[in-house]
Design a protein that fits this description.
Blueprint: H1 3-9, E1 16-21, H2 30-41, H3 63-74, H4 98-107, H5 125-137, H6 151-161, H7 177-208, E2 214-216, E3 222-224, E4 232-236, E5 245-247, E6 249-260, E7 266-276, E8 284-291, E9 294-295, E10 307-318, E11 323-333, E12 339-344, E13 350-352, E14 356-357, E15 362-363, E16 367-370, E17 377-382, E18 395-404
Parallel strand pairs: 4-14, 5-16
Antiparallel strand pairs: 1-18, 2-3, 4-6, 6-11, 7-10, 7-12, 7-13, 8-9, 8-11, 12-15, 12-16, 17-18
Helix pairs in contact: 2-7, 3-4, 3-5, 3-7, 5-6, 5-7
Length: 406
Amino acid sequence: MNLFKKIIATIALSTMVVVSTAPSVGAYSTAALEAANTLASQGIINDNSANPAGYNLDQNVLRQEIAAVTMGVAGLTKKTTCDNLFTDVSATTPNTWACYVVETLRVNNMIAANAKFNPEANITKAEALGMVVKAAFGADYNYDSTLSTSWQEQLVAFASENGIVSAFTDYNTPATRGWVFEAATASMDAAVMAGEDDDLLSGLLDGLDDMDDDTTDTNGGTTVVVPTGSSMSVELSPTTSSAKSIPNSGTVTFGSFDFTAGNQDTTLESIRVVRTGLGDRADFDRVWMEKDGVRVSGRQTVGSDESVYITFSPAFVIRAGETETLDLVATLDGDTGSQHSFSIVSASDITASASIAGNFPVSTSTMTTANYTVVPVAYATSGSPSTYRAGDTNVELAQFKLTNNA
């Protein structure tokens, strides 16, 4: 039975299906809603997870709103006094909160010391992206005036290379709240990865102080001997599919990894996986980790070096002595006949609270993309029309029936 038939087999066809949903809350993507909920969980924006319409994701974002998001991304403490640093922002103008947020950015040199801030004006995509990238990366990102390219071009190039946004050229288009929320969460994820790379050497040196012994490898270097009791082991899970053929579009699980904690709870913060095979990284939209079908990491793109930096926010916890199986999942849309595999190349590709043990690289099977013929399914309505009043939630809108005509 091929992969598609396995999927179809899980659906009880020729049975009655009842759909219940809440009224529409506007045009926005699932990714935008997930980003908003992430920012809300960190206290950066107000929590409207119970009422997504309250996020106003499809509305243009105001300059005072992006200031609040930027302050949260940067982790700054809001000022408690308003010093009228801008002529159009005071303790009461245009509201009672903007001044403290906007002036916090100014005193931390995150916005220019202009005469006005224009708090209730729309902000462009390039301006909004610049603020959240600067908030997340700090001095690690700066405009290079010696180059011939504009600040917008340099900013978007940096952001796209780090998987924050897809490259765009409509720099002056007003940004929507949903777009900004996605850029903000992606900036924080990317900055975490960049910081972890910088801290890797110091982390290894710190670990040397706790080692009782070491051995020398054949190249004359030193291999740290990690106490096995406190380390976390990583290996390919036996539940990993051995399928060699996958659809060339849609969502695909490439493999599963077992993470086993030693004698202490271990927090898993990030993983770098590398794509290999006779295929194109452009086939992939996003790559992430799931636990029992639930996403537990950020969704990242495949970078120009074929790497995917997957971050867990909050960190994923593996209890002492227990094994957690995480699935590597991706969405793709590419040509048939492409080959793809993902590997955790070395222990240094995993950031966790414990040392890492395992036989690296740990790699999934190589999958080849192919076209799949969709089984014809007949759709028919059923039941009686439903009525509901404005404001009602969880109402039954319709009943329909699907019949397998294969």
